[in-house]
Amino acid sequence: MVTGDSIRKVAAVIAREYAQAAARKDELPAPPVNEETARVLAERKRETFAEMLAFLQDRQADMKAVGEGNFNFHRAPAAVIFGVYPCRDQNFLKSGVAAMENFMLAAAARGLGTCWSNAVSICQESVRAALDLPSDLILVDGIAVGYPVEGSPINDIPRRRLPIEDVTEWRE
Ligand SMILES: Cc1cc2nc3c(=O)[nH]c(=O)nc-3n(C[C@H](O)[C@H](O)[C@H](O)COP(=O)(O)O)c2cc1C
Fold first, then answer.
1. By CB count within 10 A, which of 34, 54, 65, 66 is most buried?
2. pLDDT tens digits for 103-143?
3. 132: left (phi > 0), else alpha (psi -120 to 50), else beta?
4. Considering only CA atoms, which residue is closest to atom 27 of ligand 1?
5. Are residues 144 and 112 in contact, defined by beta-carbon separation less than 8 angstroms?
6. Which domains occur in the chain, in start order?
């Protein structure tokens, strides 16, 4: 759990390192999807972002604060950083992600708001250094925790979910 000076320190290293760390994703191999799937995904991403921006601009949201929110846990007073130590059975990563989801559900049940922050894993080397964490601890990601700001448009962005039949394949 980071709060006070620690959360500010993590936000500062993320703001400083993000652009460079994010650019490194171009060094990763391209995902193994066929051309048609890649086209559909890219189009969906473009449309989703365009809709999201139009919705926020329409409501005169502070777009700078919205963008910076990805680096500073949306100005929440606390965040939890989830880390896992690698082990042989490959379950370590899955356990970390499950813990994050469970944490968000438990927080919501108590009236708290959360937001996943993938800048933590993207900037993990700097975050580990800033918090003096062991070098073999893999940072899965961070979760911002606070009380949702009533009436903030960022909490009302329309959901754009694919119908369940489009994302489910049935085998009998
Ligand atoms: C792996 C992952 C990474 C995410 N990273 C961010 C992030 O960096 N910043 C952010 O504002 N939200 C992030 N989110 C939250 C999503 O934007 C979205 O709010 C969340 O998945 C809930 O979906 P819903 O709003 O459609 O219910 C992330 C979600 C996931 C699953």
1. 66
2. 999 999 999 999 999 999 999 999 999 999 999 999 999 99
3. left
4. 159
5. no
6. 2-167 (3.40.109.10)
Q: pLDDT over 90 for what percent of the chain?
A: 85
CB of residue 122 inside a 6 A radius of ligand 1: no
Residue 119 CB–ligand 1 contact under 6 Å? yes
Instruction: Please name the residue that has the structure tokens 């066929």.
Output: 34
Q: For a substitution probing ligand 1, which of 80, 116, 139, 140 has the most ligand atoms within 8 Å of its CB?
A: 116
Q: What is the pTM of this model?
A: 0.92
The amino acid present at 102, given as its one-letter code, is: N
φ and ψ at 146, to 5 degrees?
Answer: -175, -170
Beta bridge partners of 81: 142
